[in-house]
Each structure stands twice: as C-alpha cells, then as structure tokens.
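Checklist before submission:
- one chain only
- standard amino acids only
- sequence pasted in full

Submission:
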Amino acid sequence: MKTKKDGYDKDGYDIRGFDRERNHKVTRNRYNEDGYNKDGYDARGFDRERNHKVTRNRYNKDGYDQDGYDIRGFDRERNHKVTRNRYNEDGYNEDGYDIRGFGIDGNHRITRNRYNKDGYDARGFDIRGFGIDGNHKVTRKKYGEDGYDKDGYDRRGFGIDGNHRITRNRYNEDGYDKDGYDKDGYNEDGYDIRGFDRERNHKVTRNRYNEDGYDQYGYDKDRYDKDGYNIREFDRGGNHRVTRNQYNEDEYDKDGYNIREFDRGGNHRVTGKKYDQYGYDQYGFDKDWYYKDGYDTRGFDREGNHRVTRNRYNEDGYDTRGFDRKGNHRVTRKKYDQYGYDQYGFDKDGYDQCGYDKDGYDRRGFGIDGNHKVTRKKYGEDGYDKDGYDRRGFGIDGNHRITRNRYNKDGYDARGFDRERNHKVTRNRYNKDGYDQDGYGEDGYDENGYDRKGNYNVTKDHRYD
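Returned file contents:
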C-alpha cells in the first residue's frame, strides 16, 4: 500500500491504521483492536512494554502498573492480585501489617514496638515468653526456663521479687521465704543456711563450729574467717584486707586506734580519756585549744602574739579577737564585734562574756568568790546572794531554792504565810504588822499607801511615820 509523503495512504490512514484525527480505521475511536492509541499507549498511559509514558517505568505516578496493581500487588481497593483480599500470600496488607496489626519488621502499628497493647508479640508471646494460654514458648509448660509462671511466681508461690503470691511479703503462710528460711533465718528443721541451730550448734558436729572449724558467723576459734580476716577486716598479721597495711580506709588499726593512738570515740589508748599523756586530743589540741608548738588554729600563741608577725596582729592586721590596731572589728567595722564585745572582751556596759566587769564583779555586784563588792559578804544590799536567794532560801522571784515554788519545805512563803493564807505567827490572815499575804492591811492599803487598784492615799503612807 502506497503512502503519501505525510505518512498517510490514499484512504487517509497511517501505517498503523490511524487517520489524521487519530482515530483507528477498524475501531473508529482513538484506540486500535489491542487498545493502544496512535502514539502506542493504552487508555492508562502504558505502552506495549508496559512502561508508562510519564514515569518511563512500569508504574504510573500513583504507583500502579498497567494491570492496576502497585509494586506489592495491591489494587486501588487495597485488594491483592493473587489472594483477591486485603492480605497478600504472606498475610500482610498494603501498609505492611498483618491482621493483628504486626508489621513485617515485627513491630505493632499502634505501640510501635514488638508488643501490642496487650503485651504480646507477633507470635503471641509476651516479653517473658508466655503465650495467651499461659504456657511458655520454650518449655511448652506453665513455668518458664527460670521456674516462674506467666504472673512471675514459682511453683511454691514466690514471685521474682521474692514476695509470696498470697501473703504479699517475703514469707509464705507458714512463715518461710523462697529459700525455706523463717524471719530468724532458720528452716523448718531449725537450721540456718550454714547449718547452725538457734543454740548456735552445728547439725553435724553438734558444737559451735562446723566441720571446717567455723562458727555460725563464719569465724574460727581465733575469730578469723576462712580468708584469714577478723570482723574488722584485719588479718593475723594486723594488715587490712583492702589497704594491705596496718590501717584501714578510715586510718584505724586492728585494735581500733588511729596513728595518734585515739579510737573512734576520741579516747586515747593509754589514758583512756580525750587527752593523751601529754595533754593533747586526737586533733593535736590541748585543753586551751593550742597545738604542741603553742599556737592556735589562727596562728596566735597564748600571749596573743602571731606566729608570723611576732606581735598582737596577724598579716592582715587583726588580733586574736578580730580587731585592728584602731579597735575596729573586721566584720562589723565598729568598736564592737557581732556579739557586742570590744577588743578587750567587754560589752557596752563593761561586762565580759562571763558577765563580769574589769574588777571582777557581775551586774549585781557579786565577785567570782560570791561576795558582794559593797557588803563584802555573801549577801548584797538587797539581802540576796549571787544566785538571787536570801538567807531563808527565797529567791528574787519569790520561789524557794529547794522546793522551786513559793513555799519552803515547812509550807510558808517569803512573808511567812501558808497555802491557806494564814501567817505562821499570828495564825490568821494578817501578820503582826497587820498586812495580809499580798501586803495589804484590813483597810485595803499597803504600807506605801496604795490600794489594790493602785490608788494612792498619802494618809496611809507609813514609810515616813
């Protein structure tokens, strides 16, 4: 058949049977008997080699081939070309999950790990290997390789954590733990884990030591364990298990003394007291807090001179109490320190920390010897001693030194009245001067002319009679 220069024959068809309007001479439409158009593509855009005209491969831009299936064999309705349902021959759907929701990689689509929300993997076993029926995947029985069931309990009812299924503690109904021992560490035969009974005798030897010569606590007759160490971790030669010398990690020897011969309580090996035979404690201080060289922690000696400067002031210019040469304290920057004392140790009223002035008297005028600076005796001008008690034992506050209340051991107060408010001399409510226990007369006024409400009557003031 002859064709013209433009590729069409006398009837107007090209070599493949399509006219200029791209219709086929047999089918009378744009596709020939095989379903391909003038350009060689079917209605879905695939050529005879099954490649798509746009993507140039076997799948169109939506991911489906010439037959309408994606690369995994699923059509647009998500059915598989072989099984004709939503799951392929391997049991996975178009998204890669089986009917239970597990993916090809073994992870669940919801939990995103190997186990579904009920705790089972793709094979139907939980994390410990137990199936829904309660049997283990390896042993095929109720108990796994470790001897525990699905709930974590062994045949005797003890859990992995050591607690019993019923009692919810370490001991079963009979009072024994998972190893068969009671709260005191003894089994039903009365022996502990080492074979000793409650009287500390061994079940074989019938005495306090087992066949190897060790007692209930693992020590021999010399109190050393099988490794040759005593309870303090020292061997027979006095060397420690860890440090390998005569002192442990805390620097104490086998007898419990440190290198300075003091025990943990601070008592010396020789003296048995807080100070050694030379008068120094475990830190090297004497009772006045001075080292052997005569200096305290701040570098001052007993005379107040500094170790470096050789005078009363240290390198920073402060004396032992923290005052500079002008008498100002390094903290407060004033004449008195934070406790209210000056560089000589006295407060604003002239009293030191012990309550005495520079002459040795306290605020009430009593000296260290207990005598008053005016009366030169035990009792001051007000009739009270250093501790605030008069000769009869009554204090300034009205309470007695011995009974600690208003009445002495005979039952009378400082003014001579008993608990019924009667005077010991007159035997009634008024003393020989006519005043009651509160100091008021029958007319209601005291000796100074005041009534109980504090009103003053000059005619009743007897101080100037």
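Reviewer check: Residues 120 and 126 are 4 Å apart (CA to CA).
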